[in-house]
Design brief:
574 residues, alpha/beta, 4 domains, 36% helix, binds FE2/S2 (inorganic) cluster
Length: 574
């Protein structure tokens, strides 16, 4: 049922007035070949498309935009496709994280500066999902997220392969001589065999599933494989739904509550999701002016076990998850701990989704009393090495390292790591703690996924496959290992990580949620007095702006000037 009239549509400011400017707007729409009656008085729907030739995960999004358009027309809307920054995770350097905030700014300003009444957000590859959504939350007009969908399972020599997770495994196998150079080249063409996002529980599937659980996609949309015809129909249904949302003025601020975010966090933990989601969820909550902290995430991680048997925490992939019932089936498992009154883009509640949810594979989506791993999806650590927090993913870490004391082997930055990690003269044992500095939001800049530091070749040859590693960097959700990440404050701003030296004893205690360096306060103060901050990589352009304004990982790595606060307001039209 419509609750708004045509005259209340935002786009009418551009098209309906009896002045020269409105004449020009109508004239330019007709320049595109549209007849006046095809667009006048209709909700204008932006299809924000992050397709590009450099983003293979989004290779199908031009087709999906067409599916959205046809449904928007059929529902009585006027669809317009607007290209937005395409952040192909693998190709963009130094890291897509540097550009997540830029995408969010672009989305907000595209929506603000054009005559748009509602938006369909097309994306999925890692930073694209949070970037699109952060901008949409800040603009706060009706918006629906249309996830790119996971790619099909990889296959090689009879084995099922997961993107990212197996890349790291076979890289270590190649370096230790377990597979040949020919095998390695063969793997290039077998691991990612269709369009769509990574089929492991990387950041893409973590974030699209969280957004789904928060009610901002069509229910269950995030699990549909990109190559399935159902994915095209889902895109079309998004087009129909957004027109209804515009008439109902169902914007994000009318859907999202703290309960929505906590539901999203519970799904994050049950998925064994990427540690990156801790940053993105907090950034999204801050855009929506909703309280959410690392401590909230830690509390939920202690309550919700890993139930989705997906790599790297489990041993299966997103395609199997879909056949098992997908996200609705996982939500059904979690029903006792969810707030089922949380809203969604349909104008209903989570309980409506649960009414049709069913699980078809108990190994794939486990019951609460039979989790995939002993360890939780997240542990938030604090201590004198991480005063405002650091994170670790116990479900993808080695249990024998969960309480560990070892001596630091310190790398001052990533080039230093690359130069020395395989040096035969490096003094290191399996008990050592690898420490990487200057890889955080400001220091790198952009906090690249350098946190799964490589195991030194000489230890790999002895069969060592995991070590305690600590950094202010991030780690791909597809990777595994005992990696303490997001150490805050980061070393480049003088966090205690900056003061660690070779040979210092470091103690990790996951159960106690502690991370400490066993150096007394007086000595740390002496080192601090001698410390000088690293020179910024550049003062120029967007990277310079980023370094000046990015917040720390525990606060979401957003720009402080984009968080919450009053809406920016509508543009003048003269
Ligand atoms: Fe795009 Fe993994 S590279 S989702």
């Amino acid at each position: 049922m419509a609750s708004r009239t045509v005259n209340e549509l935002r786009s009418q400011r551009w098209f309906a007035a009896a002045d020269m400017r409105a004449f020009a707007h109508r004239q330019r729409a007709q320049q595109m070949g549209l007849r006046r009656e095809e667009f006048m008085g209709k909700p204008v729907i932006a299809i924000l498309n992050t397709w590009s030739d450099m983003s293979p995960c989004h290779a199908h999004l031009r087709d999906r935009a067409e599916a959205v358009k046809r449904a928007v027309w059929a529902a009585g809307g006027y669809p317009v496709e607007l290209p937005a920054l395409s952040l192909g995770e693998v190709m963009v350097k130094p890291t897509t994280m540097l550009y997540r905030n830029l995408l969010s700014i672009e989305v907000e300003e595209l929506l603000r500066s054009h005559p748009i009444d509602g938006a369909v957000l097309l994306g999925g590859c890692d930073k694209t999902a949070p970037g699109l959504l952060m901008g949409a939350l800040s603009m706060d007009i009706p918006a629906i997220f249309c996830p790119a969908g996971p790619m099909l399972n990889g296959r090689w020599k009879g084995q099922v392969l997961g993107a990212g997770t197996h890349t790291r495994k076979y890289w270590d196998d190649l370096r230790s001589g377990k597979i040949s150079q020919e095998d390695w080249i063969d793997l290039e063409s077998r691991m990612t065999r269709s369009h769509g996002t990574c089929n492991t529980m990387g950041t893409a599937s973590t974030m699209t599933s969280i957004i789904d659980a928060m009610g901002l996609t069509l229910p269950g949309a995030s699990s549909i494989p990109a190559a399935d015809s159902g994915h095209i129909r889902m895109a079309s249904a998004c087009g129909e739904q957004i027109v209804e949302m515009v008439w109902a003025d169902r914007k994000p601020s009318r859907i999202l509550t703290r309960a929505s975010f906590l539901n999203g966090a519970r799904v994050y933990m049950a998925l064994g999701g990427s540690t990156n989601a801790a940053i993105h969820l907090i950034a999204l909550a801050r855009r929506a002016d909703i309280e959410l902290s690392l401590d909230d995430l830690d509390t939920i991680a202690r309550e919700v076990p890993v139930l989705a048997n997906i790599r790297p925490s489990g041993d299966r992939l997103m395609e199997d998850f879909y056949y098992a019932g997908g996200l609705p089936a996982l939500l059904k498992r979690l029903e006792p701990v969810l707030d089922v009154e949380a809203g969604n883009v349909l104008g209903g509640t989570l309980s409506d989704t649960l009414a049709f949810a069913e699980c078809y594979d108990d190994d794939m989506i486990r019951p609460m009393d039979r989790p995939v791993t002993e360890g939780a999806a997240l542990a938030v650590l604090k201590g004198n090495l991480a005063p405002t927090g650091a994170v670790l993913k116990p479900s993808a870490a080695s249990p024998h390292l969960s309480r560990h004391t070892g001596r630091a082997v310190v790398f001052e930055n990533y080039p230093d790591l690359v130069a020395r990690i395989d040096d035969p003269a490096l003094e290191i044992t399996p008990d050592s703690v690898l420490v990487l500095k200057n890889a955080g939001p400001k220091g790198a800049p952009g906090m690249p996924e350098w946190g799964a530091l490589p195991i030194p070749k000489k230890l790999l040859a002895k069969g060592v496959r995991d070590m305690l590693r600590i950094s202010d960097a991030r780690m791909s959700g597809t990777h595994y290992g005992t990696c303490v990440l997001h150490v805050s404050p980061e070393s480049a701003v003088g966090g205690p990580l900056a003061l660690v030296r070779d040979g210092d004893e470091i103690i990790l205690d996951v159960e106690a949620r502690r991370l400490d360096v066993l150096v007394d306060d007086a000595e740390l103060e002496r080192r601090r007095a001698a410390w000088t901050p690293p020179e910024p990589k550049t003062r120029r352009g967007y990277t310079g702006l980023y370094q000046d304004h990015v917040t720390q990982a525990d606060q979401g790595c957003d720009f402080a000037f984009l968080e919450g606060g009053p809406a920016q307001g509508e543009p003048d039209i003269f």
